[in-house]
Amino acid sequence: MAQVIVAQNGPLSIVELDSGGQAKVLLGENTAEAKANALVASSAATLAGHYANDATDTDVPGGAAGERGAKYWANLALARATAALVAVGIGIKAGSARFTLYFSGDKSIWFDLTPTAIKHVVIDGILAAVASLQALFATISAPAQRLASKPGPDGLYLYGADGKTFASITRNAFNHPDYASTKAQISSLVANGVSSSYLVRDSKWDSIQAIGEIIHFEGVGQSRAQGYPGTLYSTGAANFAKMFVGGVRPDDLSVDPAVIYASLADLQERYVTSMADSTANSSGSVGETPMFGAMQMIAQLLRDNDGIDPSTSGQKFLASVSARGGATAALLTKANGTRYPRTLLNMQKGPVAARAAGWSYATGGAFYTQGEGDCAAVTDPSTWKTTVRGIRSSMEADWQTATGTARPLPMFLDQTPSSANYYAGAQPDIAIAQLQLALEDDYMCHVVAPFFMAFRNNDIHMVPQGYKHLGAYYGWAAYQWLFKGYKPQPLRPVIRAEGNKIIARYPVLPGRKLVIDTTTIELMPNFGMRAFSAAGTEKTLSNPKLVGRDCVVWDASETPADTWSFGYAWSKQTAANRTVLNGGNIRDDNPLIFDPTDLNKPMYRWAPIDKITLTA
Hints:
The chain is an alpha+beta fold. It folds into 3 domains: about 1-125, no CATH class; about 145-190, no CATH class; about 205-615, Rossmann fold (3-Layer(aba) Sandwich).
């Protein structure tokens, strides 16, 4: 059988001709079938019994004159169909192993058939799509990528040779980088596309915007900055961020500047049982720092919100850490001289290494993760604030000297989440001072009170996933302030009284609402809020409830005086293995997910550890 295209006073049709010249329409109108049959009606001879000579177009031996073989009739049918095509401007050409259709006017071929290929616009499109898929799959190691059923949730999970999932489908959720990116962009539009006092770029922060091919962030503090104790969660190298060749802690294995600062390498966390530099006071194994999570969060937000992939865009981030285990703030000062020399070298060698690699360089900021040492030492909070301000000022001046610029230094601070371990439920002075610094100083920024993250059992230190999650909050704050131009603000309420009703209103972003979270941590008494008189006597609160999208209301045992204050997240959690951590249940419902195909952690704004004065 042969298929030809017929057009006669109407649309094109695809017609199948059998060996007897009968036509059957495959695509087109039924009238085309009738017209095609009419074309070959005069050749509709019965060929039964005459196929012995069907390879020729001569008379069949022994047959009546004019009785021809099948080839003759096929050729005749083709010729008549061709005549119909030519009549409407379509040319047909048949060779020994080729069949071509072309437009008679410009002779352009629109269909070409050979034993090994078909050329047609639809077929070309299909082949292009297949080639695209092949190119995609070629980037994936076939033996390493497999579809598997993961124990636990009912669903399917795709994961690679590193054992980490890159896509998953369950009954209630679908996770994949492309989907996560789209979801994040929509969430960003919801959160940022509406008016809000600190979601609008403020020219006040123009001098600290991240402009350069490599942006340097320095981690300063004590053991939680250092990554103590334990092994790694982030085991691969990051092509979107850099470190000194000595490591994210450059002095892990050597203290020789010529060795550890010789060049830059892709960021990769390292586990060591003891650091080479004794000033680090690494009393045990050190591993995952918050830096990998911070750099990954910035890269994720740039990709999802701005369409910029730092792995290919030319802009990278340099991460280095100069922490000291167990340090008070005083031990980190330039004047003390114990650990600051490493901080200074990191800042000085950053621009040198960037220039050697041919990159422009800019200061990013300091991630300050410290406070447990001063909680234990019962340092006066005013003294602590003065000391940390001095550390920032020293770093700013020395970094300006190293770069030859007048760029101010942003400092990002978390809150010590294990204050309950030191203050036994009383006022956690250092955690409150950390928040006050961010509220009082232009170039200090509150990041998070991480009491809801993953910690070791009854320990002030985190597990590796906790350090990465903490880093994501540093990265999130840095992205907002240094890339988008607005300084993020804590979820800190204004509290007033009506009779014996205590009403706290929180600065929830447009499109968001408050949530009382009793899943991430246990239900705390009164959601974590406590009331005190001016003399420090605790007052009774009861009947806490969420009202509307941004208010929480409590009943007080008496009408509050104007001098009352309120302590939030002062009490310790009582759940097993978390008794050293403070706790509170109030957060928003921000939809941002960090590392959605792997660590998959929500980035809610949690109310900070706080002391709030009653507003008249």
